[in-house]
Amino acid sequence: MSNLPNRLRPVHLIIVLLAIILGIGPLLGFYTDYLWFGAVGYRSVFTKKITWQILTLLIGFLLSFIFLYINIRFARNTIEGILSTMGFQYREIDGRLILAGTGILSFLFGLTFSGNWETILLYLNKTPFGVTEPVLNKDVGFYIFQIPFLDLIRTIFLGLFFISIVITGIIYAYRIGPILLPEEDIINSIPTKVLIHISILLGGIFGLIAFGFYLNRFEVLFSEQGVVAGAGFTDVNIRLPIFIILTILSAITALALVANIKLKDVRIPLAGIGLIIIFLLAGSVVPGVYQQLRVTPNELQLEEPYLQNNIDYTREAFGLSEIKEKEFEIDANLTTEDLEGNEDVIENIRIWDRRALIQTYRQLQQIRTYYTFNDVDTDRYHVNGEYRQYMISARELNLDALDPSASTWINEKLVYTHGYGLVMNPVSEKTPDGRPNLVLRDIPPTGDFQIENPRIYYGEGTNSYKLVDTGRSEFDYPRSGENAFNNYGGTGGVQINSFIRKFVYMIRFGEIKFLLSDEITSGSQLMYDRQIQQRVEKIAPFLSYDSDPYPVMHDGKIKWIIDAYTTAERYPYSERYQDLGYNNINYMRNSVKVVIDSYEGSVEFYMINKEPIVETYSKIFPELFKEYSEMPQELKNHIRYPKDFFKVQMDL
Questions:
Q1: Are 395 and 365 in contact (CB under 8 A)?
Q2: In a 3-state reduction of DSSP, which class is residue 307?
Q3: Which of these, 155, 273, 141, lies nearest to 208 by C-alpha position?
Q4: pTM over 0.90
Q5: Residues 6+ apart with CB under 8 A from 184
Q6: pLDDT digits (tens, 9 = 90+) for 349-406
Q7: Alpha carbon of 245 to those of 224, 267, 272, 624: distances in Å?
Q8: Using omega within 30 degrees of 0 as the cis cutoff, is the peptide bond preceding 444 cis?
Q9: Distance of CA 81 to CAs 87, 92, 149, 194, 199, Å?
Q10: At what angle do helices 147-180 and 117-124 cross, to 10 degrees?
């Protein structure tokens, strides 16, 4: 071992192997995502995201490296100059060590910056709301797009200043500290360059603390200390002035620290620091005391304008500001003429409970155990000139119910690949024996509606990956005598046309058969992330999605529609909402309708409501969103008011 060159020593080999092991997972994930986004038609979205992550990483790294390196190098040169002038023997700090340490720290700062790429892009592409809050008179967009970015910059620089003062302080204390120990007046004995360096760093820290207090002024508008969401009487009249005073004191302290280069009077910065501590303590005690003694006894009078702000801005934030109240006269004495004159209403009164109906569907129309119905939805269709409501459900594949003897990799991944068809019945009809009047039923589908391609490769319950266009024909549907088979004719999967692709997917899915199976040919396609909500979240994770997708018939195929929402947590004076998986939001709009093709897996995002957040994202990803006018009219006929949005609005 001792004869091995340095580069081949065991420790180096171990480091290389660890780097390969730790790095191969992210690299493979990056490559497979690149292929997946290409197959779904949004590779540009993926590459833009990766590009900005790399760009922000580089910017954060370079900014941090330059800042830290200048400070550490200045400290080293200062120490060497002092010791050389005083005639002390010293050993130079290894420049390679400085570079390596600075590089590691800078990379960590770069990762932090890169992890906030979305915050940066939202700031760069911000769209005004056109709504001004009443306390500090800022547009709502300032709070949603600008404050998070400003706070990010402050945090990064505060970290850089803090790390710099810790490292340089240790270096100064270790190298020249012993020289200063005998001195009685340590402040006056500190070399001028050292004092300048430390004072500037401390001044920078307090300058950033002042900026933090300045930003905290705006946080007052999200206070939940009083009886209303947002700033109350105490917040506006006590907390806000305290933050202004703290901002001024911190700024003065920062200037005093820099001025102390000349003054060399430790009392000046200590006085500023002491005042800040006093006001911080006061800020944590005084508002509560004031609230109890002054506000609570006169709460209705003092808080009324702030309560009105809370009501008005909550309504605006959740799309409730345009609500109009109307009175309807109710006459319980229905006549035959009333019923005959409102036949279109009567025919669309739903008599079927979804919970019971899904069990009925499973009993009557599941056909085989490996099919299932996951949900029952309501949709609307024009039939014979009438606009009717129907209960509708998709028949999806459920391989958990496949016979154990048939549960082989070939069957589960290559043969049983898709569900088949829909079941429908009018909401207000039943057969003489009490069953739903099925107007679309059976396999192949028969009834009053025609579906040219009823196959469902992408749906609510399609979780595992599938391989299509292989050496095996796919099971299509059961029939007497001999089952029907089919071969996929779409482009909804990733082409598995090379050894490299087979290899990376073998690692991703932990299945050696990707390499060994002769069934996988150069024309085979791999379908994964087939669950429709998972699919859309992977493409546009910045949107929130309704919990209830629903199938519709369009252009001879089965399509899925999912309502997508833009949400925010920083809408001034708006009430916060936590339910249905929406965590602590105080703004919500149904901005996008998402349409997924059950056969191809294609995903289209239509902007139905051009509010500022979706407009900002459309600037970032212009290739992702389509105008609502581009949606086919037949699909527009199936748009409904979103369930989750309605629930949120009603709760508020």
A1: yes
A2: helix
A3: 155
A4: no
A5: none
A6: 999 999 999 999 999 999 898 999 999 999 999 888 888 999 999 999 998 888 888 8
A7: 22, 20, 12, 46
A8: yes
A9: 10, 11, 41, 11, 19
A10: 120
